[in-house]
Design goal:
- With 219 residues, the chain is α/β, with parallel strands linked by helices.
- The protein has two domains: 115 residues, Rossmann fold (3-Layer(aba) Sandwich); 96 residues, Alpha-Beta Plaits (2-Layer Sandwich), CATH 3.30.70.
- Helices cover 38% and strands 26% of the residues.
- It contains nine helices and eleven strands.
- The strands form two sheets. The protein has a six-stranded parallel beta sheet, with helices on both faces. A five-stranded antiparallel beta sheet has the order 7-8-11-9-10.
- Helix 1 links the parallel strand 1 and strand 2.
- Bound molecules: adenosine-5'-triphosphate.
- The site of adenosine-5'-triphosphate has 20 residues, from helix 1.
- The site of adenosine-5'-triphosphate (ATP) has 20 residues, from helix 1.
Length: 219
């Protein structure tokens, strides 16, 4: 993975977590907030931290914001500031701007003004937790769109010793197995004659409707 320059704007819990994780993964991270205290708190755990108002074009230009590959805007409460900052970042020419939205209307405006990606962390995490509660065998659940998801689950005991052709997962459940995890190793795009072993973790892609049906089978 190539090292990229990231700027994270808005240091609430989400912004801090994004900034620190990007830094731990070996990237250059500038953390930016209008609050001096937030800046102080994160200073030791990212590359640079700076106090600035993200809705002030001159401040953004002075920081050299244009040189960053990716900007993550995580200003929650102040929707106007979130929209202004996103607009300025795109106007100044940051290639990839990802903004956290609070609600559907906020998301719509962000997309209109050119946000490359709009995220809803609370909504996504809520869905994951709910799926994990409904079926404790669901380990991960990622919504790819309003129609499709990827689910990672422990293979049911009844699948052991059978291969993917015999299980007919595509025919019966409409899902495609994209990977099998076994003993900390991942077999990406497993062959159809791959036999499932007890304890295997299956990563599958499918429509949300089909994956929901499957969840009841693997409960
Ligand atoms: P959490 O991630 O904890 O749920 P949140 O999404 O509710 O937080 P807020 O607390 O609303 O986020 O704001 C995140 C940060 O954004 C705050 O630290 C705030 O100081 C900062 N912020 C707000 N407006 C601006 C601005 N114009 N420029 C820079 N930072 C700002």
């Amino acid at each position: 993975m190539s090292k990229k320059q990231y700027v994270v704007i808005g240091l609430g819990r989400f912004g801090v977590s994004v900034a620190q994780t990007l830094f731990e993964l070996g990237n250059d991270v500038l953390a930016l907030d209008s609050s001096e205290e937030k800046v102080q708190n994160i200073a030791d755990t990212v590359t640079h931290a700076v106090q600035a108002d993200a809705t002030d074009e001159n401040s953004l230009r002075a920081i050299g914001i244009r040189n960053f590959d990716v900007a993550v805007v995580s200003i929650g409460e102040d929707i106007q500031a979130s929209i202004m900052a996103t607009l300025l970042l795109k106007e100044i020419g940051v290639k990839h701007v990802i903004t956290k939205a609070n609600n559907a209307m906020h998301a719509k405006v962000l997309r209109k003004i050119g946000a490359d990606k709009v995220i809803f962390p609370e909504k996504d995490m809520g869905a994951r937790v709910a799926h994990n509660l409904v079926s404790s065998n669901i380990l991960e659940y990622i919504e790819l769109s309003s129609d499709y998801s990827i689910a990672e689950f422990v293979s049911p005991a009844s699948w052991s010793g059978k291969n993917l052709i015999e299980l007919q997962l595509r025919g019966k459940y409409g899902i495609n197995v994209v990977a099998i995890k076994r003993n900390n190793e991942i077999d990406v795009s497993p062959s159809a004659d791959e036999e499932i072993e007890s304890g295997d973790i299956i990563v599958a892609i499918g429509s949300i409707e089909d994956l929901n049906k499957l969840e009841h089978v693997i409960e």
